[in-house]
Amino acid sequence: MIYFDNSATTQVEESVLETFVKVSQQLNGNPSSLHRLGDKADGLLQQSRRQIAEVMGTKDAEIYFTSSGTEGDNWAIKGTAIEKRRYGKHLITTSVEHPAVKQTMAQLASLGFDITYLPVDEQGVVSVEALTKAIRPDTILVSVMAVNNEVGSIQPIHEIGEILKKYPTIHFHVDAVQAVGKIPFDLGEHSRIDLATFSGHKFHALKGTGFMFIRHGRKIAPLLNGGGQERGYRSGTENVAGIAAMAKALRLLFDHKEEKVAKQRAIRDHILDTLAQYPKVKVFSSKTGAPHIVCFALSGIRGEVSVHAFENENIYISTTSACSSRSGASSSTLAAMNIPDKIATGAVRVSLTDTNTLEEADQFLKAFDQLYEQFKAI
Questions:
Q1: CA distance 150 to 178
Q2: Where is the Aminotransferase class V domain (predicted)?
Q3: Whole-prediction pTM value?
Q4: CB burial of residue 356 (10 Å; 0-12, 13-18, 19+)
Q5: From CA 180, how far away is CA 178, in angstroms rounded?
Q6: Where in the chain is the domain with CATH 3.90.1150.10?
Q7: Which of 36-40, 73-77, 327-331 has the lowest mean pLDDT?
Q8: Do 151 and 21 form a contact (C-beta atoms < 8 A)?
Q9: What is the rounded radius of gyration, in angstroms, for the C-alpha atoms of the chain?
Q10: Boundaries of CATH 3.40.640.10 in the chain?
C-alpha cells in the first residue's frame, strides 16, 4: 500500500501509540482530582504542555489543549467575536480558508458580524496590500491560514504580521494545521501571531487531539463552559493519554526536521516535474508552496474517478479537502484561484509525510502513466 493522503490524516507513529496505551492503562486519574492519582495525571498534563511549548518556542501558559483543528478554529474566531463584539463586528479572512474557518465566519455573519473575504492570485496567495486596505476602525480579527490544505500555497504570514503591528487591538489568528513541521513558523515573542491552531492527527498523533496557542495578554471567550479546566478557557476533562502522545509526536516531528522537509520536497518536485510532461494534466501546486502537497487534475476525468482508479492500484490519494470531499462539491480554493469548474471538478491531491519515499513516488507515477493511457481516449 502507498498512502499519499497525509493532509487528511497521518498514520499514528508506533511509539506514540505505545505512549497512549501506557498512559491509558497506568494513569487513569482525572487531572482535576485532589488525590494522588489526580496529581499524577495533572503532572503529566503539565509536563506535556511544557514539552509542546518548548518545541513551539512559546510559554507553557500560552498552550491550551483542544480536540482538533476544527475546534481550535471555531474557538479562535467565535471566542474573539464574543470577547471583542463591543469594539467592533468586522472580521477579515481569505477566500481559500479551511471549512472550519469559512463556515464559522458564515455563522457569525448570520448573527450580524461583517466578514471580508480577501481574494487570492493564481497561486492561491493573498495580497498583503489588499488586506491592509480591508482593515477598518471596527476590525477585531484577521484570520489567515499558513498553508492551504488543498493546493499547498503558503500565505505571507510574517508580512501580514508586520502590517498588524500597527493595529495592536486586532487579533491575528493563523490556522497552522498544515504548517507545523513543514515550513518555518514563528510563535516567539517577536511574532505578531496572537492565536494559532494545531491538530495532532496531522503529525502522527491520535485523532481527537489538538492544541491552541493563545498569546499572553490576549483574551478570547471560552466556547466550552463547565468545570473550568485549561485555566477556565476550555472546560472538559482533559484527554491526558492523547495529550501525552501528541506531545511525543510533536517532539519526534521536529527531530531532524530539516532533513524530513527536504526529503518531502524532493518527492514533491519529482512528482511535479513528471506530471508537467503530460499535456492533459493541469497542475495547481507549485514549487514555491508547501513541501508536502501536490494538487492536479486530469482533463475530463472527475476527481473521485481518479481517486478510485488509484485505489484499485492500492494507492491512496484524495480529492482536494478531505473535510468536504464526500459532499461532491468542487474545490473552493480552486474556484478562488479562478480555475474553471469543469477543470476543478477533476482535482486530486497527493499529500506526503516524512515516512514516504521516492520509490513510492515512482510507483505512483508508473500507475499514473498507465491510467493516463486508459483515460486518454475519454
A1: 10
A2: 2-364
A3: 0.95
A4: buried
A5: 6
A6: 2-9+257-377
A7: 327-331
A8: no
A9: 21
A10: 14-254
We find that the CATH architecture of domain 14-254 is 3-Layer(aba) Sandwich (3.40)
Which is it for strands 195-199 and 171-175: parallel, antiparallel or unpaired?
parallel
CB 307 within 8 A of CB 295: no
258 vs 66, 84, 130, 263, 291, CA distance in Å? 28, 39, 33, 9, 11
Quickly tell me which residue has 487531539 as its cell: 209
Condensed to tens digits (0 to 9), the pLDDT of residues 89-112 reads: 999 999 999 999 999 999 999 999
CA distance 204 to 246: 8
Instruction: Report residue 291 as a C-alpha cell.
Output: 513541501
Rounded to whole angstroms, the Cα distance separating 265 from 189 reads 29
Q: Where are the alpha helices (DSSP H) in the chain?
A: 14-26, 36-56, 69-84, 99-110, 128-134, 157-164, 240-254, 257-275, 303-311, 332-336, 341-344, 358-376
pLDDT digits (tens, 9 = 90+) for 261-292: 999 999 999 999 999 999 999 999 999 999 99
Distance (Å, whole) CA 355 – CA 1: 13
Backbone angles phi, psi at 205, to 5 degrees: -95, -175
* CATH superfamily, region 2-9+257-377: Aspartate Aminotransferase, domain 1 (3.90.1150.10)
- CA distances from residue 32 to 37, 168, 258 in whole angstroms, order as listed: 10, 35, 39
- Tell me the C-alpha distance between 344 and 131, whole Å: 26
295 classed as catalytic: no
Please give the span between the terminal C-alpha atoms of the chain, in angstroms, as a whole number. 28
Active-site residue (options: 323, 329, 335, 365): 323
